[in-house]
Amino acid sequence: MSILVAGSIATDHLMSFPGKFADSLVVDQLDKLSVSFLVEDLEVRRGGCAANICFGLGNLGLRPVLVGAVGEDFAEYRAWLERHNVDCDSVHVSETKHTARFVCTNDTAHAQIASFYAGAMSESREIELKPIVDRVGAPDYVIIGPDDPQGMLRHTDECRQRGYPFLADPSQQLAFGDGDLIRPLIDGAEILFSNEYEASLITQKTGWTRDEVLSRVGSWVVTLGPDGVRIDRAGEESIVVRAVPEIEKVEPTGVGDAFRAGFLAALSWGLGHERAAQLGCLLAVYVVEQVGTQEYEISRAAFLARCGATYGDEAVADFEPHLQTIRV
Ligand SMILES: Nc1ncnc2c1ncn2[C@@H]1O[C@H](COP(=O)(O)OP(=O)(O)OP(=O)(O)O)[C@@H](O)[C@H]1O
Ligand SMILES: [Mg+2]
Fold this sequence. Notes:
By secondary structure, the chain is α/β, with parallel strands linked by helices. The protein has helices spanning about 50-60, 75-85, 130-135, 150-160, 175, 180-185, 195-205, 210-215, 255-270, 275-290, 300-310, 315-320, and strands at about 1-5, 10-15, 40-45, 65, 70, 90-95, 100-105, 110-115, 140-145, 165-170, 190-195, 220-225, 230, 240. The structure holds adenosine-5'-triphosphate and magnesium ion.
């Protein structure tokens, strides 16, 4: 049995300019704009939703299968993910395009000039899941995260046709997609993930009420930021799990992905939705406390201590046997 994680694979290139962009702009010459800023530092961060989720699963001792499209420049990132227990053998490598890249420069006034290059990501529509399943075994779950929209649709259709259980995680694509894209991405999902804002986008854009969405998915997991998470199921009472108190809030980028990794890990260990939400929250808080989405390390003892302090000894007892493989 296996877990397939489809979605974006990207790097963020972040620079800071020790001045103000506005001082270099001549307003009545903007049609001839040509500026270059001497920046102080360049930070390259590994990201992309599918890669982030895989990193979290790998850290918890699972061996997720990454499904997505990259460029020839992926070698170093691949080695990093493989060191963290991620199966990258089915990643599609484009012959012509680079891996998706976000390039961003900030100035001292928090103004930002940024570009997102989707690059090889558009080739995820060329990926078929069946050969991957033939290689790694029938999937327990296929999670379909934000990616090239055609690729997301193809993976979701294939899951429905072949009967692979799939989890819908359209996230950022909800802002761009219309109802015609979003409806087929959700319909028939075992689990739908969103945050609260995205939950409103889903009902607004699909034209489905909350109950209609619930009639089309097994469960709807709605993350509530520092307030934790709520899980809704048709005809059942919601399950609410509170977040793990942060020690220090550094940067929340990537919390949603870490949450999904924890949630999926608990499900694949055969635990229920409440435990899954708790493990999601536990993993997510590690990301809040770090700069970057793949920089946290889990120490088994500290992880279980935090778990006990927030969710009690029974939760610790349920997680402990599955965390034997954690290295640190
Ligand atoms: N400040 C915080 N302290 C502790 N836990 C947090 C905090 N913010 C988020 N979390 C945890 O992360 C989970 C996901 O957070 P959130 O709802 O903000 O996701 P998101 O909006 O999809 O985030 P993103 O897309 O930026 O990764 C929450 O359910 C919670 O467990
Ligand atoms: Mg999110």
